[in-house]
């Protein structure tokens, strides 16, 4: 149910393309009996930051090297093939692995950015590999706007009309973009003329406010 609540609104808001969803049950199936053992490891008292980092890396390594149960792997491979057929893109299909923590966004809490995102995946093998990496990243320290890699732009707006009350342009020294030659997201210094330029026009800010208000009306809550 959580996956549906997260995925359907995203498709409606952004006009997002086709997709398939892996639920928390898939993750539990993936871990199998090892889930109990790893749970005990994570619940052990912390001996400090260095111990937490060591534990984080050990869990990530375990998940990234853990094999998929054959039945689950077959279902993911089939879902990818069906996606390629459904979109009529075939071998040109380029996909992304995105995530949502359980109860990540709700009326009482919002903590997006818990997991890593992977872009430009063109094969079932790549999807399988990055699903594991995405799952493992819940115990890692991903770099992104969410984690403070850059000082992002800030807009304070008046609802529901979208009047901009305050605007601060962040110093965006680094930008991330998908490099098709490398097949991954890379980071490099932001061109000087872009560092102090707003990432959104005022018209785009107003459109985001409009969407936010519409979402609240549809969902019946902020």
Task: Using brief descriptors, characterize the structure shown.
222 residues, alpha+beta, Dna Ligase, domain 1, D-amino Acid Aminotransferase, Chain A, domain 1, 2 domains, two-stranded antiparallel ribbon, two-stranded antiparallel sheet, 8 helices, 14% strand, disordered N terminus
Write the layout of secondary structure elements.
Elements (H helix, E strand, L loop, with lengths): L1 H13 L9 H8 L2 H10 L5 H17 L4 H17 L8 E3 L20 E4 L2 H13 L17 E5 L4 E6 L5 E6 L4 E6 L2 H4 L6 H18 L3
Antiparallel strand pairs: 1-2, 3-4, 5-6
Helix pairs in contact: 4-6, 5-6
Structure description:
- The chain has 222 residues and is α+β, with helices and mostly antiparallel strands.
- It has 2 domains: 1-142, 2-Layer Sandwich (Dna Ligase, domain 1); 145-222, ATP-grasp fold, B domain (D-amino Acid Aminotransferase, Chain A, domain 1).
- Helix content is 45%, strand content 14%.
- It is built from 8 helices and 6 strands, in the order αααααββαββββαα.
- The chain has helices at residues 2-14, 24-31, 34-43, 49-65, 70-86, 124-136, 192-195, 202-219; strands at 95-97, 118-121, 154-158, 163-168, 174-179, 184-189.
- The chain has a two-stranded antiparallel ribbon with strand order 1-2. Strands 3-4 form a two-stranded antiparallel sheet.
- Strand 3 (154-158) and strand 4 form a beta hairpin.
- Helix 4 packs antiparallel against helix 6.
- The longest helix has 18 residues, at 202-219.
- The two termini are 19 Å apart.
- The model is unreliable at 1-5 (pLDDT under 50).
């Amino acid at each position: 149910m959580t996956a549906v609540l997260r995925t359907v609104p995203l498709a409606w808001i952004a006009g997002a393309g086709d997709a398939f969803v892996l639920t928390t049950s898939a993750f539990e199936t993936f871990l199998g009996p090892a889930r109990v053992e790893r749970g005990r490891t994570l619940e052990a008292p912390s001996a400090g930051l260095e111990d937490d980092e060591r534990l984080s890396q050990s869990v990530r390594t375990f998940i990234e090297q853990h094999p998929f149960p054959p039945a689950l792997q077959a279902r993911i491979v089939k879902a990818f093939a069906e996606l390629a057929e459904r979109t009529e893109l075939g071998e040109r299909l380029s996909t992304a692995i995105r995530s949502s923590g359980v109860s990540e966004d709700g009326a009482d809490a919002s903590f997006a950015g818990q997991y890593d995102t992977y872009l430009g995946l063109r094969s079932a093998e790549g999807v399988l590999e990055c699903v594991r990496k995405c799952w493992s990243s819940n115990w890692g320290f991903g770099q992104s706007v969410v984690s403070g890699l850059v000082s992002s732009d800030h807009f304070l707006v008046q609802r529901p009309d979208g009047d901009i009350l305050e605007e601060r342009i962040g110093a965006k020294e680094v930008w991330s973009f998908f490099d098709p030659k490398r097949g991954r997201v890379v980071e490099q210094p932001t061109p000087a003329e872009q560092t102090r330029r707003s990432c959104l026009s005022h018209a785009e800010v107003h459109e985001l406010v409009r969407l936010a208000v519409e979402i609240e009306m549809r969902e019946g809550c902020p």
